[in-house]
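It would be a great kindness if you could assist me with a short task in structural biology. Thank you for your consideration; the sequence and its tokens are set out here.
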Amino acid sequence: MPRVNIYKIISIVITMMLLFVVNLAFSMTAEKELDNMGKHDLKPIVLHPDNPHYFLFRGKPVILITSGEHYGAVLNLDFDYVKYLDALHSYGLNLTRLFSGVYCESPASFNIQNNTLAPAPLRYIVPWARSSVPGYANGGNKFDLSRWDESYFRRLKDFVHQAGLRGIVVEVVLFCPYYGDEQWDLSPININNNVNGIGDLARTDALTMKSGEMVAIHDAMVRKIVDELRDFDNFYYEICNEPYFGGVTIEWQYHIASIITDAESSFPHKHLIAQNIANGSAKIDDPHKDVSIFNFHYATPPVTVEMNYGLNRVIADDETGFRGTEDMPYRTEGWEFVIAGGGAYSNLDYSYTVRHEDGTFDLPKSQPGGGGKSLQKQLKILKDFIHTFDFIRMTPNNQLIKSELPEGTTARVLAEIGKAYAIYIKGGAEVELTLDLPEGKYRAEWLNTITGMKDKEQNITHSGGSISLSSPEYMEDIALKVVKAKTDN
């Protein structure tokens, strides 16, 4: 027999006990903080009343910024979501996106290794209970769409609760189109996977109004989730992920929005509803009255914010990826979108997997998107930077830049004239930036978006009009903060 190293065993036991104590202390402290705020009477996250391009959450203005897992934290029973939420919290990130479970993927989907939306056989949990009849496509018994799985709702509510303890907002995505037959073949609402004889449809008809009995299943699930989550303040709903694929109709989307609204009609506080509009950019001409957040994917450059800013609702870039595994594309997209006036940015981060819920999975070059600790740190830099401003008082104002920029270089400005300017420059390696500033004394700080260090600082006394500021040398991008000096009244 191999010799037992008793000291190593004792060390492991002590480490596990310390981790347990630390987590318990954290939970107790967080619970106490929520109690002090009136936990049972917290109003859900809302659009900020003074500037509805942003959020008001627990009494503070908030922009939501994250690099989060691929949406399977609840439906995948092997995923340790507490470990995942601890990782998000450690970086100060404040958003995560969650799929309800009516949609999942196979390990082959989109060439994603260790995909959290592709649970192992028998490790898939959904709102509906399993029946006694074998034959589900990925192992185990079929689903009974007439019975709820209460263990699913306990897991869902605990996830939202644990996120709330860490100040993290959850985007609860109710539905997702079936991009191909491989996803439809795994869905509980496919007739082959349930005992109710429901779902004898083409995948492109599943999220439409064509089948009354299917719509009834959707309605019942939405009402159940709404009822279960009614008392949480740290989430909002998205009707459907990427409804512009897979045959999803606008009539069905608006129907689901009305079901959410009706289900909450007696609630003292209502939750926000988001609608996913497009990949890239699109102009919204006829916004639905119940929708407060308009979601876009892969929104670079962020012209979609500018096109829809007049709606006075939150414009969000709530998924990005599919541009390789390097940090730069996703960091720069986040910075551009936020400085353009966006209210939320969510990078799709493939470094969170089963057994690597802390974001330490080493991404293969074949992975369709990026993520990992370096990007998570860089997005924290963005979040910390923007939250140093009173951004509720700021608006996009690129016209304040008076200089011609080098080819391939872009600059964006979010400003409160005469008081504060958040400026982001993408491209180049050094720039001479001419700004239009009122008379006054200012403090200028050039921020390294990769390290978070202030690479250059200067005090400015300005007589008004154009002023030139020289950046330090930088790689890929740089940010500039200009604020009115405290000594200047």
